[in-house]
Amino acid sequence: MYSGARSGQLWFALxxxxxxxxxxxxxxxxxxIDNWWALFFLIPAVGSLWGAYWVWRTTGxxxxxxxxxxxxxxxxxxxxxxxxxxxxxxxWPIFLVLAxxxxxxxxxxxxxxxxWPPRDEDAVSRG
Length: 127
Prior knowledge:
Layout: H1 5-28, H2 42-59, H3 62-83, H4 88-91, H5 93-109, H6 120-126
Helix pairs in contact: 1-2, 2-3, 3-5
């Protein structure tokens, strides 16, 4: 499909289209979203989650995925809190859980890596 920076542009465009469609549904179909501005938290959430996926697919560096993955989950959680009108006083521990996951994931994945780009010896040995 798309690769690299163009892929990021694609997901950004799709996120904007989704937000636009939700606004149209709100205006014409009576969809009630009180905190409509919270939808804009979904844009960096999608971008970060896509960035984590892209890093994983292109480099195989599991420890490098932790930052964008946790960032995307934080933005997704913030959007859900506002859209679902959850109480911050009750839901705030989720951010401690996300911070803990962010600290744990790099050590779980270690430094195992798929060489990217492949080393010259690997290309010679494959024939």
